[in-house]
Write a structure and sequence with these properties.
By secondary structure, the protein is mostly helical. It has helices at 3-13, 24-47, 52-65, 67-80, 88-97, 101-108.
């Protein structure tokens, strides 16, 4: 799955879809997209000489906009490793506190190669 296809699938096609499974590649491409998008917003804010408070506000707005698709893709990724998607409610806050350790773990753990409780193998 390419970067653009993964983002189109994760963000736009499955914006709030908590059912099914997400491959490691789809999940990691989405996380990379969030990092790049936030960094670009920060650079634009810095170039525009925005005040520090305004810059943090813009980044917070971006994170709020992408909160639902982030929870959705995290839930689908948890489904891929045969865990409950409800753990995404715990994983998202932990990811911010542990500087991405949970994200890395979710990205490295290999999903089930056969159908599991949450559906067929993602394409």
């Amino acid at each position: 799955m390419t970067f653009i296809k993964s983002i189109a699938t994760s963000v736009f096609d499955k914006y709030a879809t908590f059912e099914g499974r997400a491959s490691r590649r789809e999940y990691l491409w989405f996380i990379l997209f969030l990092i790049i998008f936030t960094m670009v917003a920060s650079v634009i804010g810095t170039i525009a000489n925005a005040e520090r408070g305004a810059l943090f506000f813009v980044i917070k707005v971006i994170l709020v906009i992408f909160a639902l698709p982030t929870w959705a893709v995290t839930a689908r990724r948890l489904h891929d490793i045969n865990l409950s998607g409800w753990l995404a409610l715990i994983v998202i806050p932990l990811r911010n506190l542990t500087l991405g350790i949970v994200t890395i773990i979710l990205g490295l753990v290999k999903g089930n190669i056969e159908a599991n409780n949450y559906g067929e193998l993602p394409k």
